[in-house]
Amino acid sequence: MGKYHDTLGVSSSATEDEIKKAYRKLAAELHPDKTGGDKAAEERLKVVNQAYAELKKGNTDPEPDPNMQDDLRDIYETMRGFGSMFGQNFTSMNVPLTVLLTGGKQAAFVQIPTRRGNMVIFTTQQIMVDIPRDHPLDKPLKVNVNGQILEFSVHPQAVRWNDISMDHERTVTISAVNNRYCLNEVITLDSFDAMLGTTHTLVHPNGKTLNVKIPENTKPGQIISLAEQGLNMSYGRGDYLLHIEVTTRKLNLEQIEILRKAVKEIDSKKT
């Protein structure tokens, strides 16, 4: 058995698919995210990467090869295929909701392969990725890193912030409804506003002010849907779902008496 086959634990007659499967298994087991940064595992991963790169060229002996560009490209393609196994490094990026809606820069970490003698060395590098305003979630972001195009799928993160304009902390979460990403927020109404109807003003996470009509006789647990105010997809936009809570207003004795009289008058008109 050749040195590189032995490194990957496959026979010298192994097929390309068997070699790739063995490489992916070892690379996943030895990745720093799984080993906690163990130095021995890190060195072993370097050897595994080298073996895979050489076998991709058809080599079974550790002879130097001055041309590594194609091998590095193959390794990039393989690593990109690992998906959640490698988290943010190659395929996915968590982006705060406000950045996704308004645009901005987001840090990401990638592993860069370079050739040192017969070894393929991976180094972790932080890059800043430009997030376009309102980027469709189903379209990957393409980033050029040292001449290699990496694709990042974007995952929105729920946000919590102190909204000065509304004088309280707000939390906006994300949910999938009918293959679209909706925003969700709980809003609290005064009991009289819920009964009589009102206009509720809130600031969308994208910074825009929304004036929401609250209909009469709105009940606790009711959901008011703001159409197409959610997250963007290439085939449509989700809604902004407002989940209603109602609080009871504290009244003084005089106000309670006025309310009782009003209720009696209302009841008398029913009969």
| Shape estimate | elongated
- In CATH terms, what is the fold-level topology of the largest domain? Helix Hairpins
Radius of gyration: 29 Å
Roughly what fraction of the amino acids lie in strands? 35-45%
CATH architecture title of the largest domain: Orthogonal Bundle
Order of helices and strands: HHHHHEHEEEEEEEHEEEEEEH
CATH superfamily of the largest domain: DnaJ domain
Q: Identify the CATH class of the largest domain.
A: Mainly Alpha
Largest sheet: 5 strands, mixed
Structural class, from secondary structure content?
A: alpha+beta
* Cross-sheet strand order for the largest sheet: 6-7-8-14-11
Mean pLDDT: 79
Tell me the distance between the termini.
96 Å
Q: Uncertain runs with pLDDT below 50, 5 residues or more?
A: 62-69, 76-90
Secondary structure: number of strands: 14
Number of helices: 8
Helicity level? 25-40%
Number of domains: 2
What this model shows, in words?
This protein has 271 residues and is an alpha+beta fold. It folds into two domains: 3-156, DnaJ domain (Helix Hairpins, Orthogonal Bundle), CATH 1.10.287.110; 159-247, Urease metallochaperone UreE, N-terminal domain (HSP40/DNAj peptide-binding domain, Sandwich), CATH 2.60.260.20. The protein is 31% helix and 37% strand. The chain is built from eight helices and 14 strands. It has helices at 3-8, 16-30, 32-35, 39-56, 69-80, 97-102, 191-196, 253-270; strands at residues 92-96, 104-116, 119-131, 141-145, 148-157, 159-163, 168-177, 180-190, 198-203, 209-214, 223-226, 232-233, 236-237, 240-247. A five-stranded mixed sheet has the order 6-7-8-14-11. Strands 1-5-4 form a three-stranded mixed sheet. Strands 2-3 form a two-stranded antiparallel sheet. The radius of gyration is 29 Å and the shape is elongated.
